[in-house]
Amino acid sequence: MWDVHPADVGSRAGTKCLDDNICRKCHQLQKRELRAHSRWILDPMGDWYFRWLIVSTIPVLYNWIILVSRCSFIDLQYNYLAVWLTLDYLSDLIYLLNMAIRFNTGYLEQGVLVTDRWHIAGKYAQSAGFKLDLLSLVPTDLLYIHFSIQSPAIRFNRLLQVHCLSEFLHRLETRASYPNAFRVICIMVFMVVSIHWNACAYFTLSRHIGFGRDPWVYPNISDPDNARLGRQYLYSFYYSTLILSTIGNTPAPVREEEYLFVMADILIAVLVFASIVGNMESIVSNLDKAVRSVFPDHQLLNDYLRSQRVDPKLHERVAKWSQHLRLYKKMTNEREILQMLPDSLRAEVAVSVHLQTLRKVQLFQSCELGFLKQLVLKLQPHVFSPGDYVCRKGDVGREMYIIQDGRLAVVAGDGVTQLAILEVGNYFGEISILNIAGSKSGNRRTANIRSVGYSDLFALGKDDLSEVLMDFPEARDVLEAKGRGMLLKIGMLDEAVAHTELEKGDLARNVERLETALDSMQTRFARLIAELESSVRKINFRLNYLENELSGWVTVDEDSELEGETEGPRLTQAQTETQGQTGIKIRTQSQSH
Q1: Which residues fall within 8 angstroms of residue 540, CB to CB, at 6 or more apart?
Q2: How far is CA 343 from CA 349, 374, 460, in A?
Q3: Burial code of 142-151, b = ≥16 C-beta within 10 A, e = fewer?
Q4: Helix (H) or strand (E) segment spanning residue 61
Q5: What residues pair up with 418 in beta bridges, in sequence order?
Q6: How far apart are CA 104 and CA 98, in angstroms?
Q7: Helix %, strand %, coil % of the chain (to 5)
Q8: Residue 205, H or E segment
Q9: What is the block-wise mean pLDDT of the chain (593 residues), using blocks of 10 residues?
Q10: Which residues fall within 8 angstroms of residue 66, CB to CB, at 6 or more apart?
Q11: Euclidean distance between CA atoms 189 and 61, whole angstroms
Q12: How crowded is residue 187: how many other Cβ atoms within 10 Å of its Cβ?
C-alpha cells in the first residue's frame, strides 16, 4: 500500500479539474476557430453559391453575344466604344472575383463538405476549370498598344469561361419547377445564338468580299437604308436563318469563299439542327411518358374498352373519370411516384402531406407520432365519380376511408333517399378494419355510401394496419379499447362475447409474452454455454502451454547420468542448484571461522 497525504489528493484533484477546464476551453477555442475558418466557405449546393453563379454567368453571355457582334459590325464598336470598354473591364473584374470565389467554395468528399482552404485550393488548382479561368484572364488587352483599341477580337480568350454557363444551366434545371419546359427554352436559345453567330460571320465575309459585289453578299452600304446598323444586323440574321433552316430561296453563291460558307452552313444545319430536333422529340416523348406514369393512359383505356365492347354509358363514365384526373392533377399512385426516394425522405413527404388528414380520425388522435408516421405511408388515394358506391351495406369491410375532398351521401336501399351527408374531414369504416370481438355487425358494412360528385378519399387497408401494429403492440391495445368504446356507445357491442374474447386475447397475449421471454432466456442460456465453452478451451490451452514450458526446465546432468546407473536416482536441475548453493554457504561459514 502506498501512503498518500490528503493534501496530495486535494492537489491532484485540483490539478485534474484545472486540466479539464483547460481542455474544455481549448476545445471551445478550436470550435470557434473552425467556425471562423469555415465561415466564408460557400456550399456548392447552397443558395448563395447559386446567386453567385447568376452573377458570373452575365459576363459570359455578354462576351459570347456582344463581343462577336462588335468584331463583325464596325459601327457597333465605334458608336459605343466607351460603353464597351466599361463593360469589358467590369466583366474582367467579375472573372477575377469568380476565381476568388472558387478558391472559397467547398466540395464534397465522402459525403462531407470540405472546408479546409488548402484542400479547396489544391482541388481547384488541379481542375480543368482553373486552367480555363486562368487563360481567360490573360491580359491580351496589352495588344491594344500594337493594334488599335478598335480591335475587340484580341479579347476572344474571354470566351473560355463557358463552363460557368453550363454549370449554371445544369443547376437551374434541377431547381426549375418545369424542367422539360426549361430544356425546350434552352434549345430555342441555343438556336438563336447559333443563328446570331452565323449572321456575324456572314456580315464579316460580305465586308471582306465587298458589299454589293454580287447578289449573294450584303447589299452596297452606299444606300442610306443599307448603312443603318439595325438593317445590317436584321438582314444578316434573316439570311442566316434561311441558310441554316435549309429553306432555300437565297441567291446562289458566286465566289469560292461563298461556296465554302454555304457548304459549312448546310453541314451545320444537317448536324446541329438535326440533333436539336431529336432533342426536342426526346423531351416531348419523355414528357408524355412522365404524364402516363402519373395519370392513367387515356388512349390505352379507350382501346381496351372499345376492344371489349363495353357499354357506351360505362365507357363514357371511365373517360370522364380519366379526364377529371388529368384536368385537376389528381394522382392515385403516390407510392409508385415516391418509391425512388429513401425511406426517411418518403416518410417525411408523406407526413407533411397526409399527417393532418390522419389526425382527424378520432381513432388515431392519441396514438404516438411514430405509429402515425408509419401509418401515413400506407394511405392510398382514391377518386370516385358521381354516383359511384364507395361501399354497400353487407359488404366485408377491408378498408377505412377519410374524405379529403368532395361529398358522400349515406343512402337507403333504393339508392336515392339520402340519410346523411359526409363532407371533408369525415371518415367511416374504422371499426371494420380492427376486427373487434363482440361487434354485432362483425366486419360487414352497415350502410350504403355513395359519391355525390367527384370525391377524393384516402383508404387505409386492414392488412396495412395489421402490418404496422405488429411493430407497435401498445397501439393495438389502445385502438381496440377505443373501438370497443365506440361500439358500446352506439349499442353495437355484445359485452359478454367481448369480455370472453378479451380474456382469450389476454391469455393469448400472456402466452405470447411467455414464449418471447422463453426464447430470450434460451438465447441467453445458449450464449452463456458458448462463453463457458470458450473459457474452458482457453484454460485448457493455457494449461497445455504451462506444461510445455515446465517440461523444458527438466535437464539431466551428464555426470549424474553416468553415475545414475550405480549410485541412485538422477537429480533435477533445481536440486543441483540447491546443492550448489548449500555448498557455497558451507564454504563461506568455514572461511569466516
Answers
A1: none
A2: 10, 10, 19
A3: eeeeeeeeee
A4: helix 47-62
A5: 411
A6: 10
A7: 65, 10, 25
A8: helix 179-209
A9: 37 45 54 54 85 92 92 89 92 92 84 82 89 90 86 89 88 81 85 91 92 90 88 92 79 89 87 75 68 66 81 83 74 71 79 78 76 82 87 83 87 84 82 67 78 87 82 75 69 60 62 81 89 90 86 52 43 44 42 42
A10: 84, 87
A11: 12
A12: 16
| H-helix segments, 425-472 | 462-469
Is residue 273 within 8 Å of 245, Cβ to Cβ?
Answer: yes
Q: State the CB neighbour count (10 A cutoff) for residue 211.
A: 17
Spatial CA neighbour of 212 closest among 229, 195, 232: 232
Tell me what pLDDT residue 564 has. 45
Q: Looking up cell 385502438, which residue turns up?
A: 479
What contacts 279, CB < 8 A, 6 or more positions away? 183, 187
Long-range interactions of 169-178: CB distance < 8 A, separation 24+: 171/50, 171/53, 175/50
What are 440-446's contacts with CB under 8 Å, separation 24+? 440/487, 440/492, 440/493, 440/494, 441/492, 443/396, 443/397, 443/398, 444/393, 444/394, 444/395, 444/396, 444/397, 445/391, 445/392, 445/393, 445/394, 445/395, 445/396, 445/397, 446/393
Sign of the CA dihedral running 290, 296, 302, 306? positive
Cα 328 to Cα 181, 380, 455, distances in angstroms: 20, 18, 12
Q: 400 and 429 in contact (C-beta within 8 Å)? A: yes
Rounded CA-CA distance 29/75 in Å is 63
**Cα dihedral value 59, 62, 68, 74, nearest 10:** -120
Within 8 A by CB and 6+ apart from 571, the residues are 557, 560, 579
